[in-house]
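ok trying again, last paste got cut off:
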Amino acid sequence: MNQESTDTTLFRSDIRPFYEDDSGTWTYLLADPEQKQAAIIDPVWVYNPVTGRSDSGFIENVLNQAKELGYRVNWVLETHAHADHLTAADFIRRKTGAKIAIGRDICSVQKNFARVFNLPDFLADGSQFDRLLSDGEVIQVGALDIKVLATPGHTRDSVSFLVEDAIFVGDTLFRPSYGTARCDFPGGDAGQLYDSIQKIYGLPASTRLFLCHDYPEKGGAPVAMVPLEESRSENCHLKADTSKEDFVELRTARDRTLSMPRLLLPSLQVNIRAGAPPEADSNGVSYLRMPFNTTIPDLLS
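nice, full thing came through this time. structure:
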């Protein structure tokens, strides 16, 4: 599903959201329409865990629209290593030559999941990505300055991307009726998430929040963008005046009730590799590993 970009006379960026409904994920095409340079944010590589087959149709649709608009895709920007869908970052890199960027703390995520999947030879140094990002860095896409904001809490490597009046917040915030990200994955921290959201809430009131996920009720339309002021005043987990103590208590209690994401185990094996499948076995086939009768906390203890 493609929503039209928001028209504005004040800013030059062209933002085009694409909704992947199986995982409830938004992928964004962000471009400077004058210089024809673009980035793709949080691209989805559709995967069926029953058949073990991937489907590139969704991300090819995004790439085709970029091509039709005359945009050259220079960057793939990841807000974090996703646990609910496979990233198409490496697919895009192979198709376009784009570089892949992610938060510097991806190395911590890689180390954790190299232990979970017992990958002793895996290089947990971020070298699978082209650029590791720190808070305050700027990525140039045409004449657009994309500022990196470290927003850990959901995961240790979480970052948001601020460009003009728009910020791509990853899983940090959802639509106000859905709340905030879970913090019970390895490296997650509800107190850090609170601090990260306060950083976002400190931006100008006119800022637009572009979400990574939305899960509409049956028959409802998914929401890609929420005005910052709406989140500050109506978010069901964290409003502007919510105390840190109250939020941490609420978030921790809620996380105890949540089940593991359906695609967590396949996703993280691919996503810590920047979207590349595991190295093929001697028969030429890539295999994903599945811990048997063991939990992730047990494997990290």
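cool. Residues 182 and 203 are 23 Å apart (CA to CA). Helices lie at 57-68, 89-96, 106-116, 190-201, 228-234, 244-255, 264-271, 296-300.
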